[in-house]
Amino acid sequence: MSPNSWICLNPPNATIDDSQIAVSLDNRGLAYGDGFFTTMGVINGQILWLDYHHQRLIFHAKALQLKLDSDSLLAILQTHAKQLQQGMLKLIVMRAAQDIRGYGYMPSESGSACEVWLKSLRMNIAAAQSLPLANGQSIPLQATASAICLSAQIACLPPPLAGLKSLNRLDNVLASGELHAIKAKLLPSTLLDSALLESHSSESKAALSLSEGLLRDMSGRWIEGTMSNVFYQLSDSRLGASSSDINDSFKADKGNVDKDKANYLTQGQWYTPSMAQSGVNGVMRQVLIDELSTSKNPVIIRSLKDDDLPHLSRLFFCNALRGIMPMTSLTLLSGEVVNF
Questions:
Q1: Of 101-110, 115-124, 125-134, where does mean pLDDT reach its minimum?
Q2: Would you say residue 132 lies in a domain?
Q3: Residue 130 lies in a domain
Q4: Gap between the Cα atoms of 254 and 252, Å rounded
Q5: CATH at 190
Q6: Rounded to an integer, what distance in angstroms lies between the CA atom of residue 255 and that of residue 13?
Q7: CA distance 124 to 44
Q8: SS3 label, residue 249
Q9: CB-based burial label for 47 (10 Å; 0-12, 13-18, 19+)
Q10: Strand intervals (E) in 185-289
Q11: Contacts of 298 (CB under 8 A, 6+ apart)
Q12: How many folded domains does the chain comprise?
């Protein structure tokens, strides 16, 4: 498999040169978004968070009623990872073409058949720093950046679809477009060289540091980033005012924390929004929830509302490729800036 090319893993023997790929307009992924995808980082020939991606394959295939041999597929993915060594594998799973007109599909084994496509991309996914985990693995820690609240909203979905990384991503596309438009408005017409950052205006510097946008769903609650999940902490005063919003199965530890010595992830109480009605339950989100489940402060699933935003004390975004992306500030819709 050559880098940057797509190959078809299922049905077998359907490998196509990337210069000859032609997708039928009857393709259900194109026509209806009938499928899902996952993006996997590869370092030293190994897929990062392999068990979590495996669980995603199993869960998504069941939710969308697709017949997928996840164990065999995982073995194939590991082979491609060894060939790639360093980079990204993107997997797309779609329901196979159906004889039924329109949205419907056969209530049979043929109706659950799927196409599986894989793309290999060489890229450097390492970070300058990393956070060690108890199991010996580590999470990339990116340089600090800033975020902004976007006016774009994501859809609220029925339970079978909420949290899935389906091919229906138009709301994220529009949100990403809004984020890029904001950066383009702040930046000069020519691409700025970050090495010359000191010579640029404060607006240009702000645009260069702007890396992610915070999104609401249609209920008005803040859920995730354009390409990531979000975790946050609140000031002590805000915690006292919003205790009714906290999941009853957890209790926030408000004890003093030695912030100079503690690991970034174990400093204070982290919260993350629920994926029960919107958003994508990302691999890295679940890694962090599981990692902190036995710590002094397990992650609390808690809604993030408008009136919480001025009381944020820490914020980071995360995904399986980039790891943790800590923020130094969040610009609200009002234009107010919350600094962390």
A1: 125-134
A2: no
A3: no
A4: 6
A5: 3.20.10.10
A6: 60
A7: 11
A8: coil
A9: buried
A10: 210-217, 222-225, 229-234, 271-272
A11: 250, 289, 292
A12: 2
